[in-house]
Each structure stands twice: as structure tokens, then as C-alpha cells.
Amino acid sequence: MGARRASKDSDRRIGRRALLAGLAATAGGTAVLARDQLGRLWWRVPGVEKARKAGEVDYTGARWVAASSANWRLADRPADYGIDMVVIHVTQGSFDSAVKVFQDPGHGAAAHYIVRKDGHITQMIRELDVAYHAGNRDYNERSVGIEHEGFVDQPEDFTDEMYEASARLTARICARYDIPVDREHVIGHVEVPGTDHTDPGEGWDWDRYMRLVREASAGTTGRAQGRSASAGSAAESGVS
Ligand SMILES: [Zn+2]
Question: What is the CA(18)–ligand 1 centre distance, in A?
């Protein structure tokens, strides 16, 4: 009995997906299509959840800590929204406090990654998903946000380890989505239209950072696996 019911439910689920995909109009209806074919078509539907493994990260070496689901939106990037930007943030607080607020459903914001001063990187939202970090819907949908531990008016917070780890992360993201490594596509939160945030601030050494990203990119072009140590994540508007 249990088994029968399960298969019925699963048929209904596929029917709903097919409808979503606009496949209902297919001759003979969805029942005619082989199940695996349906499955393939279904994957192309934007906004439908892909199989995910708990704890999986998009960047080798990052540690996974889930943000509250209230601080991001389920998506299927880059299938539904193309990714052509990395947004650099500064937490305006400690690494631990940033992790904590991103786990808080009341915060309403979070970034994909947080880079600690020692270069450690924690990922809190999958790149597939839209993180609420830029305070601008369009920019959230098209970007990956990287938060950096520290304060905008304390450039000494931005350590060598942090710059290097973050640069490797950004290089990897740019390689993965074919994003040009330049200041049009790697921007600060302050540059997001409509924002009242100032991060990463005057103390962020953009020349140095972009040089490091370019250097890291040279080592991660093509299919290279980009492992490295670390860095970053983004954040959002509330925290930084
Ligand atoms: Zn910010």
C-alpha cells in the first residue's frame, strides 16, 4: 500500500512539473513521454529545485554553515538568472557575528561567503540561490556576494591572508561563470545603485585586490580546479 501510494504521488509530482514547463500541450500529454525524458526537460525549467547535497559547497576548501532561509531565495542560477558580477562587502563586525546574523531569520540579509581575517572561508548560501546581500533585487539576482571580516574605517583589518583568499575565491567564481575580471564586474557594495552602504570603503585596496584576482585567474583558467585557501563571502545590506 505504501509503495503504491508513493508511486502515485510521484506521478502527480511529475505532472505538476510538466505543467510548469508548459509541456502539458505536448501531444498525448505527459504520460506519453518517457520518464527520463521528462526529467531532462524538467531540469531546464527555471526556478525548479535541483538536487542538492546537504553541506555541499561551491568552493573547495570553504566550510558550509547554512544561512537562515529567510535571508535568501531559492533559485537555479545560472539557468534562471545569469551571474555576471561579484560584490565585495565588509561585515562591520567580527566574523562570528556575521555568521550569526546570517543565521538569523529576522536579519533579512546574508551573503554567499564570508572571508575571515586569517583567510578562512565560510559559505552560507549556494551560488545557485539568490542571496539578499546587495540591497538591490537585480544585483542580488546576478551576483555572488562576498563578505570580509572587519570595518570599513579600519583597513588594517584587511589582512594579506584575507586579500589572497578572497582573490582566489573571486577568481574561481569569475572562471566558473565566465565573468570578466575587471571593476565593472567585481564591484563594491557601495557601487550598487540605490545603496546607502559604503563598504568595502576607502581602505579597501582595489588595485591590489584586482591584481591578486588576475594572478589567481591565470592559475585557474580553463578547467583548473581552483582550490585554495579561501575567502569570502558576501554579505548583505544589513551587516555591511
Ligand atoms: Zn555590504
Answer: 39
